[in-house]
Amino acid sequence: MSAPVSPPSPAVRAEATARLAALATPPGALGRLGELAVWVATVQGQVPPVPVDRVRTVIFAGDHGVADHGVSAFPKAITPAMVRTFLLGKAAVSVLAAQHGVSVRVLDIGVEDDLAGVPAEVTAFKIRRGSGAIHLEDALTADETRRSIAVGETVAAEEIAAGAQLLIGGDMGIGNTTPAAALIAASLGLPASEVTGRGTGVDEAGLARKTEIVQQALDRAGSRVTDPVDTLTALGSADLAAAAGFLAAAARAGVPVLLDGVISVAAAVMADRLAPGAAEWFAAGHRSTEPAQALALDKLGLSPILDLGMRLGEGSGAVAAVPVVRSAALLLSDVALLSDLG
C-alpha cells in the first residue's frame, strides 16, 4: 500500500509556466489564477489544458464512537438524516454541485443506521455500523482498515472510468473532526492542543473535552502511528480510511483531486502516507476554520483557493472552488499570446 506515486510531468509544468508568461497579460497579473492554471495543465499532462468539464464528488459517510463522548454539538442521528438529504439533492453541497455541473455520489461506509429504503448502491460498500471511540479503543480492526482502503480504491476506479477529470472527496459523519484531528496530529507529530477545533461549534467546555479525547487517543495509539494502516486502524474510521484509499488511488491513476475541509485534508495526509507523492496531484479547494486543516495543508505544501470561513464539510468548499479551477484552465488556453498581438 505504500508504493510511491509518479509525479506530474516537470516538462509539462515548465511548458505551462512558459505559456503563462507568454500570455497577453502583465507578468504575474493573474496571481493565484495563473498558478492554478499551471497546476491544471500539469496534472492534465497537456498545454494548453482542456476545459475542466467532468468533476465528480464522492461523499463518504460514517459514524464515530467519540460522538457519544461530548465532542460534537449534534447527535449521531444527523448522519443518516443527511445521507437521505444528499439523495434528495437538498444538502448544501447538492445545491452548489447542481449550479456548477458537478456529480455527487454518497456512500454509507460506516453509518450507525441500516438506512432502510435507500438505494442499494448507497450501502453496497458498508464496512460496519459506526467506528470505535478512539480514546478508548481502536476505530477499526486491521482487516476493516484494509477493506475500507480497498473500497476507496474501487470507488476511485469507478469514478475515473465514468470520465472524471477532477475528483472531490466529501464527508458526512457527526464527530468526524475528532478522528481527523487525531490523524493529522499523529502524522505531523503534534499535540492535541495544536490541532483540535470546534467542529460543528462546540462551546469552551466541549472544546476542552474534545482536546482531552484527542490527546487520550494519541497517547493510546503510541508508537503505532509510524505506520499509516496502523494509524487509520487506531485513530481513524471506516469512512476516513475509504477516503484515504480514494485519494491515493486517484493520484496513482494520475487524476487530480480538489480537497475540501479538515476531514478531506486528513484523508489526504493519510493518502500521501499510503502512496508517497500523492499530494502532488492534490489542490486545496478552501481553508476551513479548523486549525488541523491549516497545519496539514502547510505540511502538504498546498495553498487554499478560497478562504470563506466555511466549516461545513460534505465537499462543499471544494465544489465552491470548481468555477475558479475552470476559469484558470480557460485563461491559460484562451487568452491571446503576446506574440499574437503583432
From TrEMBL:
Pfam families: DBI_PRT. Its EC number is 2.4.2.21. Keywords: Cobalamin biosynthesis, Glycosyltransferase, Transferase. Pathway: Nucleoside biosynthesis; alpha-ribazole biosynthesis; alpha-ribazole from 5,6-dimethylbenzimidazole: step 1/2. GO terms for biological process: cobalamin biosynthetic process. InterPro entries: Nict_dMeBzImd_PRibTrfase, Nict_dMeBzImd_PRibTrfase_bact, Nict_dMeBzImd_PRibTrfase_N, Nict_dMeBzImd_PRibTrfase_sf. It catalyses: 5,6-dimethylbenzimidazole + nicotinate beta-D-ribonucleotide = alpha-ribazole 5'-phosphate + nicotinate + H(+). Signal peptide: none annotated. CDD domains: DMB-PRT_CobT. The active site is at E314. GO terms for molecular function: nicotinate-nucleotide-dimethylbenzimidazole phosphoribosyltransferase activity. It is an enzyme of class 2 (transferase). The keyword Oxidoreductase does not apply. Catalyzes the synthesis of alpha-ribazole-5'-phosphate from nicotinate mononucleotide (NAMN) and 5,6-dimethylbenzimidazole (DMB). Belongs to the CobT family. HAMAP family: CobT. This is Nicotinate-nucleotide--dimethylbenzimidazole phosphoribosyltransferase.
